């Protein structure tokens, strides 16, 4: 009986499909000798729900799942059907998985206690990001943050478990439902992106160890709100125009963030009279993207402080957000603070 050592094929006849997300999670888990596999399973549960929501988004136009749901959420925003569907899908996957004790969702007024005595993790989630783009076939996403609970497993959920600053995240990521569907995440050891291969039903590693360029030439801001900008924001955006930077704004945070993460750029959503604390939510939008951008060598600020150091006070609290390439966010912060200190000086 002949036994030969396996020789990987060199002919390139069958191209390598790459590393699946499952295998990657397993490989990365072995980096942590004391890992018990729960976080790995939780990431798999999120990936499964993402595959289902991906299918729903692909056929949103066909299957009468486009359009408004006919209710508003606690933020007073009209819920889209896909907001509600995505919320149901992620809730179900997270509750069935068994790793999670509580969920904070954009679409739920209160904390959802899964009454799971063995659940170690708290998840904050924006099930469907970019809702205004659902019906017009523009990229949308899902954003998630994962924390370890602070109180003993099995004890009642308390504010201590929920109101954790972003620097306590153990993992965070997003799913982008675009021309291709991608899942990008970090567990605090770099950022990796996976592309969904529909026909195989698998996410494959396509963007290993993503690094955000220190500088960029793209700025993303809703210019329709210019009348409400502070002079610091006006002067920063003007400086971008002077440098002939490109203005790119999709109106889906995940999609704008993803482009700027790969190409270099800055996304700005400042405070406005309509949203004096900014529009984006700290717990399930800003914190996750801030963890990712820092892991990729970029920066995230509210104009004054690091997003990840903000102590949350309410579930759906908003924050101004300046996020992207390190040097661009530094510049924006400097301009914002310089104008604000001038205004303070004048007012005294
Ligand atoms: O329409 P505006 O004011 O520019 O706001 C767009 C921003 O609001 C959001 O749609 C808010 O997120 P949701 O769609 O999850 O509510 C972001 O994705 C996007 O960046
Ligand atoms: Mg959102
Ligand atoms: Mg949303």
Automatic annotation (TrEMBL):
Looking at its record, which EC class is this enzyme? hydrolase
Alphabetized InterPro entries for the sequence: FBPase_C_dom, FBPase_class-1, FBPase_N, FBPtase
Molecular function in Gene Ontology: fructose 1,6-bisphosphate 1-phosphatase activity; magnesium ion binding
Q: Does the record carry Magnesium as a key word?
A: yes
Q: What is its EC number?
A: 3.1.3.11
From the UniProt record, list the reaction(s) this protein catalyses: beta-D-fructose 1,6-bisphosphate + H2O = beta-D-fructose 6-phosphate + phosphate
Q: Which residue ranges does the record assign to the Fructose-1-6-bisphosphatase class 1 C-terminal domain?
A: 213-336
User: Where's it found, cell-wise?
Assistant: Cytoplasm
What cofactor does this one take? Mg(2+)
Q: Which GO terms describe its cellular component?
A: cytosol
Q: For Mg(2+) 1, which residues are the binding ones?
A: 106, 126, 128
Q: How is the cofactor bound?
A: Binds 2 magnesium ions per subunit.
Keyword terms of this UniProt record: Carbohydrate metabolism, Cytoplasm, Hydrolase, Magnesium, Metal-binding
Assembly, in brief, is: Homotetramer.
> In its UniProt entry, what is this protein called?
Fructose-1,6-bisphosphatase class 1
Species source reads: Algoriphagus lacus
Organism lineage string = Bacteria, Pseudomonadati, Bacteroidota, Cytophagia, Cytophagales
């Amino acid at each position: 009986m002949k036994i030969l050592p396996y020789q990987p094929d060199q002919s390139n006849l069958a191209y390598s499909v790459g590393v699946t997300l499952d295998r990657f999670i397993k490989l990365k888990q072995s980096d942590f000798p004391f890992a018990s596999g729960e976080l790995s399973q939780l990431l798999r549960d999120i990936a499964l729900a993402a595959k289902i929501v991906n299918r729903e988004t692909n056929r949103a136009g066909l299957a009468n799942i486009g359009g408004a749901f006919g209710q508003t959420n606690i933020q007073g925003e009209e819920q889209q059907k896909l907001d509600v569907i995505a919320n149901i899908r992620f809730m179900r996957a997270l509750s069935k998985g068994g790793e999670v004790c509580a969920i904070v969702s954009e679409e739920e007024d209160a904390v959802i206690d899964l009454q799971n005595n063995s659940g170690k993790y708290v998840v904050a989630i924006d099930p469907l990001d970019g809702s205004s783009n659902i019906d017009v076939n523009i990229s949308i996403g899902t954003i998630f943050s994962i924390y370890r609970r602070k109180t003993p497993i099995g004890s009642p959920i308390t504010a201590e478990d929920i109101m954790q600053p972003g620097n306590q995240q153990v993992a965070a990521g997003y799913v982008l439902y675009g021309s291709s569907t991608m899942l990008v995440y970090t567990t605090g050891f770099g950022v990796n992106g996976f592309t969904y291969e529909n026909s195989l039903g698998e996410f494959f590693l396509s963007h290993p160890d993503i690094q955000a360029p220190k500088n960029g030439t793209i700025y993303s801001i809703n210019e329709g709100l210019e009348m409400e900008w502070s002079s610091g924001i006006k002067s920063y955006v003007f400086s971008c125009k002077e440098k002939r930077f490109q203005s790119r704004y999709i109106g889906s945070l995940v999609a704008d963030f993803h482009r700027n993460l790969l190409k270099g750029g800055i996304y700005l959503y400042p405070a406005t009279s309509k949203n004096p604390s900014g529009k984006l939510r700290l717990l399930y939008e800003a914190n996750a993207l801030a963890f990712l951008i820092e892991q990729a060598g970029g920066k995230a600020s509210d104009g004054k402080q690091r997003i990840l150091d903000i102590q949350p006070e309410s579930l759906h609290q908003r924050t101004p957000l300046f996020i992207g390439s390190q040097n661009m966010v530094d510049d924006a912060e400097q301009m914002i603070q310089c104008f604000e200190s001038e205004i303070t000086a004048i007012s005294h």
